[in-house]
């Protein structure tokens, strides 16, 4: 039956898009090989937001820009990235690696806090999505893939101020200034947002402030320092107990410092880096109970990377990382673990047709066995516009502190958990011509020792973290970008995922909460006075009905320095639940003003 459905899908794709192959969208996704800071190896089917293209949706948070890419955003009833989980190709929310300027920033307590990124949309240049085989180079947690938030380096003076308000008494204000003084660059941003919520216990407040300094060095070198602080307070009705009716409250604070050098000495690239992230979480399980869970975790990651052009052997790189994760918790106690890594990568072109990439990595955790991971990828160019590519990788993920140590009346951790491991395979075909991009990817992931919260039967009062022996994930990714005429363009992608879990007779909590069907479509009109966008998002989870959301945005240019904007999400007021048991907001309308000079 599954083979018949898959065959029908390919027939539909071929009939609907006769030029279809494997590619990325022109505006929100980038077909060209992305070269990011850590290495020069080409990355297979990497998607990215366009740093040069503004959006008429005018989202408050850069996280919402991911809604146009093949990322399953799992929100808990709150807008603007207050608390959002990420899933790629059927992964759990713990199995996505989050990077800031290519440095790992995953929260060691729980993946629920991975969206606590203390920078505003004015600080983030673009967001890169690296699913599947290419993501293993970046280390732990990249079972489903990685998402990289790349910060802006100032190049000229820019001042922006933005204000917007919407229903549910939502509102935010954002101010940002950046400038360049010869070799020195500076960027400063501050944002305040709040809402009364669309129903009881869904209100929130968010404050973010960030500072970036940049110093140009000889031979195209740079020294950059970025600091971010963010605090949130929000109603957490049934966030972790879906359907049980627990009014709850949560407070979080995030501090982050990232300092990195890029030095080029006679063709030898040297990149030392240091990252520190501290996260506070205070959680009140029930508003009627005067008790709190208090957690503080820290992550320190010094690293260094070397790269040298070796001629016929390609661009070879070698990196060393040391990381320490700590937690002090009223529930989980006090724990520390160290993590040492050594990795190498190489990319080489053979003739005019072949591009090859390799990576190998050793991760040594103080409380787990050593794990070897790596990847191999190849691209064969039929012409300048068409190419086949394939990739294979080995990935791993260490359990979070919550999975190991947390306990309450509903959930119990497991100190005997082993690290997750996975093999990722993919093959794709890409096509590009002027005004048209398209692409197709088939992927397979074989997971071992996958971690989930399970019950032996429905009468058991609590969920416990356990390793499963194995599960398989198979899927298809399709992307299309078409410039229809001078004013109208279409960007779309579709992901089908089928996940077979060996649950050994247990009931599992997060395993089935993946997007079996995920469709994102955006029509963009560049008008003489501004821009309009209309978007459709369809999502279907296993054993649940799907839902279709219609969104629209319009911006009107008052002059070259100012514009007003109007946007609406869930225009059809659809009732849906990203996470079963937690209703999402209905129709939301927002209007605002932006000044820039």
Could you describe the 3D structure shown?
The structure is a single chain. The protein has 597 residues and is mostly beta strands. 3% of the residues lie in helices and 56% in strands. It has a 22-stranded antiparallel β-barrel. A 5-stranded mixed sheet has the order 1-6-7-4-5, with no helix packed on it. A 4-stranded mixed sheet has the order 21-25-24-28. The radius of gyration is 23 Å and the shape is globular.
Number of structural units classed as domains: 1
CATH-derived topology:
Maltoporin, Chain A
Determine the strand fraction and express it as a percent band. over 45%
User: Between the first and last Cα atoms, what is the distance in angstroms?
Assistant: 59 Å
List keywords for this structure.
2 helices; 22-stranded antiparallel barrel; mainly beta; 597 residues
Helix and strand arrangement:
Layout: H1 2-16, E1 47-48, E2 72-75, E3 84-87, E4 96-100, E5 103-104, E6 124-131, E7 145-151, E8 158-166, E9 170-181, E10 184-195, E11 204-217, E12 221-235, E13 249-265, E14 268-284, E15 293-309, E16 315-329, E17 333-350, E18 354-365, E19 371-381, E20 386-397, H2 401-405, E21 411-412, E22 420-433, E23 436-448, E24 451-455, E25 463-467, E26 470-483, E27 488-501, E28 507-508, E29 517-527, E30 530-540, E31 547-559, E32 562-569, E33 588-596
Parallel strand pairs: 4-7, 21-25
Antiparallel strand pairs: 1-6, 2-3, 4-5, 6-7, 8-9, 8-33, 9-10, 10-11, 11-12, 12-13, 13-14, 14-15, 15-16, 16-17, 17-18, 18-19, 19-20, 20-22, 22-23, 23-26, 24-25, 24-28, 26-27, 27-29, 29-30, 30-31, 31-32, 32-33
């Amino acid at each position: 039956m599954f083979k018949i459905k898959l065959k029908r899908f390919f027939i539909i794709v071929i009939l609907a898009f006769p030029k279809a192959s494997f590619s990325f969208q022109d505006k929100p996704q980038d077909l060209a090989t992305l070269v990011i800071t850590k290495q020069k190896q080409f990355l297979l089917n990497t998607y990215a937001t366009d740093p040069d293209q503004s959006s008429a949706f005018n989202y408050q948070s850069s996280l919402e820009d991911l809604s146009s890419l093949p990322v399953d955003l799992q929100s808990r009833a709150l807008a603007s990235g207050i608390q959002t989980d990420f899933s790629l190709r059927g992964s759990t929310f713990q199995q996505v690696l989050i990077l800031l300027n290519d440095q790992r920033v995953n929260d060691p307590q729980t993946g629920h806090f991975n969206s606590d990124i203390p920078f505003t949309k004015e600080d983030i240049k673009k967001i890169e999505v690296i699913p599947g085989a290419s993501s293993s180079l970046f280390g732990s947690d990249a079972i489903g893939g990685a998402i990289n938030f790349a910060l802006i380096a100032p190049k000229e003076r820019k001042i922006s101020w933005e204000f917007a308000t919407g229903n549910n008494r939502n509102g935010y204000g954002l101010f940002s200034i950046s400038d360049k003084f010869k070799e020195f660059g500076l960027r400063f941003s501050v944002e305040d947002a709040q809402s009364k919520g669309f129903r009881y216990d869904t209100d929130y407040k968010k404050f973010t402030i960030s500072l970036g300094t940049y110093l140009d060095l000889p031979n195209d070198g740079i020294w950059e320092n970025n600091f971010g602080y963010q605090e949130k307070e929000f109603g957490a009705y049934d966030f972790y107990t879906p359907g049980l009716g627990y009014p709850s409250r949560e407070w979080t604070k995030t501090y982050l410092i990232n300092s990195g050098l890029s030095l080029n000495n006679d063709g030898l690239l040297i990149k030392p880096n240091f990252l520190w992230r501290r996260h506070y979480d205070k959680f009140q399980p029930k508003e009627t109970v005067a008790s709190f869970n208090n957690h503080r975790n820290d992550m320190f990651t010094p690293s260094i990377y070397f790269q040298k052009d070796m001629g016929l052997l390609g661009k070879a790189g070698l990196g060393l990382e040391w990381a320490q994760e700590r937690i002090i918790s009223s529930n989980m106690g006090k724990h520390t673990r160290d993590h040492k890594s050594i990795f190498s990568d190489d990319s080489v072109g053979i003739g005019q047709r072949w591009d090859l990439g390799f990576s190998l990595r050793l991760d040594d955790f103080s409380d787990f066995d050593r794990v070897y991971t790596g990847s191999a990828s190849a691209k064969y160019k039929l012409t300048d516009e068409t190419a086949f590519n394939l990739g294979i990788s080995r990935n791993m993920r260490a359990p979070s502190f919550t999975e190991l140590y947390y306990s309450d009346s509903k959930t119990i951790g497991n100190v005997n958990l082993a690290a997750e491991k996975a093999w990722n395979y993919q093959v794709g075909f890409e096509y590009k011509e002027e005004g048209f991009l398209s692409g197709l990817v088939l992927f397979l992931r074989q997971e071992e020792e996958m971690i989930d919260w399970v019950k032996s039967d429905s009468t058991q009062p609590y969920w416990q973290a356990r390793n499963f022996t194995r599960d398989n994930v198979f899927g298809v990714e399709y992307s299309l970008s078409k410039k229809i005429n001078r004013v109208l363009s279409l960007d779309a992608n579709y992901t089908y995922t089928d996940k077979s879990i060996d649950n050994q007779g247990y009931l599992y909590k997060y395993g089935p909460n993946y997007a079996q069907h995920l469709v994102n479509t955006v029509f963009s009109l560049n008008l003489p006075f501004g821009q309009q966008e209309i978007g459709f998002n369809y999502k279907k989870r296993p054993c649940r009905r799907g839902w279709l959301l219609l969104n629209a945005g319009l911006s009107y240019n008052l002059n070259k320095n100012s514009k007003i904007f109007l946007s609406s999400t869930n225009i059809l007021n659809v009732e849906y639940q990203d996470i079963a048991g937690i209703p999402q907001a209905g129709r939301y309308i927002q209007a605002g003003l932006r000044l820039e000079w």
